[in-house]
Each structure stands twice: as C-alpha cells, then as structure tokens.
Amino acid sequence: MASQVIEIIYAYASDWEGEAKDFVKYINKTWKIRKIDEGDLKSLDRIDISQAYLTELSPKITYMYGLEHINLSRNSLKDLPVEFSQLRNLKRLILSSNDFRSVPSCVSDLSALQFLDVSSCALRALPEHIGRLKKLVRLQANMNSIRHVPPSFAKLENLKTCDLSDNDIGCLPPFHTLKNLRFLHLNGNRLPVLPKTTRKLTSLKTLAIDTKLSSDSTVQYLEKMGTYVTTRRIVPADKHSYYM
Q1: Ramachandran bin of 144, using left for φ above 0, alpha for ψ from -120 to 50, beta for the remaining angles
Q2: Which residue of 20, 48, 148, 184 is surrounded by the most CB atoms within 10 Å?
C-alpha cells in the first residue's frame, strides 16, 4: 500500500497547490484502486524514491511528517526544499549519487537524524552546520571532492561510523571528542599524518588508511592499543545498515 501511495503523490503533487486534506481528495479522485485518507500520509514511516529522475523535490513531502526513512539516491537533485526541515522524526536520509555541491542547510535541522549518506555527490566540503546533528550515528560522505572538514565535526559525539574515503582531504581538525567512534575510513585522501589527538579515540575498532600512513606514529600507537588498521577497502554487506 505504501509504495502505491507514494507513486500517486509524486505523480500528482506538482499539479496541486492546496492543503493536505484537499490534496488527499485529489489523489482519491484520480486513483481508482482504493480510497486513502489523510492518515495514510501521516502514518507512512519510510519511502524510497531512488533512481526516479528527480531534479527537484516537492515541498509536499512534509505532508508525510511521520517519515523516519527516506531514500533519494541516484537522482539529479541539487538542493532540498527548506520545508524538508519539518520532518522532525526523520532518522535515516540517503542522498547518495545526486548533484549536491554542499549538504543542504535544512538537513542540520533534522534533530532526530541518525544516519546520513551523502556519498558520490559533488561535495567540496562538509559544512559547519554538520555539527548540529547531535544524534548522528553514521556518516557516509565518501567518493566526493571534500577538501575541508570543519571543527564542528568534533561535536558529533554519538558518531560510531564515519566514511570519508576517496575525497581530497589534506588535514583533519581535532576530533578526539568522538568517544563513540568505532569505524573510521580515510583511504584515498591527501593526509600526510593523523592528528595526534586521534590517539584518544578509545572506542576505535577499525581504521582504514592509505599505505603511506602506515608508518605514522599515531597510526602505530592506535594499532598497539588494539585498533585494527587496514589499507584495504571495507564495504559493509548492507551499505545502509548501522554499525552499532
């Protein structure tokens, strides 16, 4: 049922300018399969609109304010509507393989967000507002052109998995405050050394780096303390799962 509702919403949302209640009437009039009501929109907790040739996202997605999981990957999106920030229950947001040059500012208002995937976009930096995502557990920002990681990165104190591989990062800010960080992927960057404060990441289980960093004193220290250091690419069986 949910997928059918989503299809009808995106087929007709661009033609409608009214409120949610009237929008539902419009859907019912057009869709002859079965009636839906406003509750159907409100009760949806996940949608998958990947590979749908979207160049922009309708603000009407906020009619589904109960959403917890949205997959918008493999489209041609360059931004998100400001209304997107109203999805206060959103926990997982997948924006990979789009045309974003920066992480949309409205994302920072998603206070419940735990999983953010912005891999394979056109990002040149992580924004300062990334630090407002206090509940973020996993960040996928690999395969971009990121050069700058802001100091606010250190505020993501619940972060457990971070993939920044295959970017253009030449230095990292101190992020020793990330006491819950377990998996850190830094392969394919321009890092000559790791910050010495990285030694304070006592929960770090796996560190993926380039071969040239193998002799770095901080890397050697972490390895001695029990962190698994590898120069191999590590891809989880389910890219969109959590590492808990």
Answers
A1: beta
A2: 184
Read off the pTM.
0.83
CA separation, residue 84 to residues 57, 117, 119, 225, 240 (Å): 9, 16, 20, 43, 21
- What are the structure tokens assigned to 144, written together? 């971009």
Backbone torsions φ then ψ of 46, nearest 5 degrees: -155, 145
Element (H, E) at 22: helix 20-30
Query: In 3-state terms, what secondary structure has residue 206?
Result: strand
Q: How far apart are CA 189 and CA 51, in angstroms?
A: 29
Q: Are 147 and 168 in contact (CB under 8 A)?
A: yes
Residue 186 pLDDT exceeds 90: yes
pLDDT in tens, 31-78: 443 444 555 667 788 888 888 888 988 888 888 888 999 999 999 999
Contact 107, 90 (CB under 8 A): no
